[in-house]
Specification:
By secondary structure, the protein is mostly helical. It is 73% helix and 0% strand. It has one domain.
């Protein structure tokens, strides 16, 4: 069953990714790297920032579960799932693995990988093509 207000869901996902704290965490990740942020002391700004990013993508994945197949195809064209999983995977692995920390994000990434293998996802197969939808400041 499709999400009744698809535009509202996409808007929420976009706002999560444009949130100033998320954008600051992403800038930190690009400077320091996800693994270094995960290795930072418990309670540090670095570890908090990487957990914010992972938690944001887990929330996005939970919301995306409700999408119909056709909605999901459009959603994938707007959302760089694989790019972000690859960027965050070193931290996810260091902090306990996807099965413990972000199982829904891992499942969304598997589904996204199937999309990338389809003709509909062909133009998003490169990280550069996905980066266009990343909304990085």
């Amino acid at each position: 069953m499709p999400v009744k207000d698809y535009e509202a869901l996409v808007n929420v996902v976009t706002q999560l990714r444009l949130n100033p704290a998320y954008q600051a965490a992403e800038a930190m990740r690009r400077r320091s790297g996800a693994a270094a942020m995960a290795a930072a002391p418990l309670g540090s700004a670095e570890q908090g920032a990487i957990l914010l990013m992972i938690g944001t993508w887990e929330r996005i994945a939970l919301m995306a579960k409700a999408l119909s197949a056709s909605q999901r195809q459009t959603f994938y064209r707007l959302t760089p799932v694989s790019l972000m999983m690859n960027a965050l995977r070193p931290a996810i692995d260091a902090l306990g693995g996807a099965e413990n920390l972000s199982p829904e994000f891992a499942q969304l990434n598997k589904s996204y990988d199937s999309f990338l293998k389809s003709s509909a996802g062909a133009q998003f197969r490169s990280g550069a093509a996905q980066a266009v939808t990343a909304l990085f400041a």
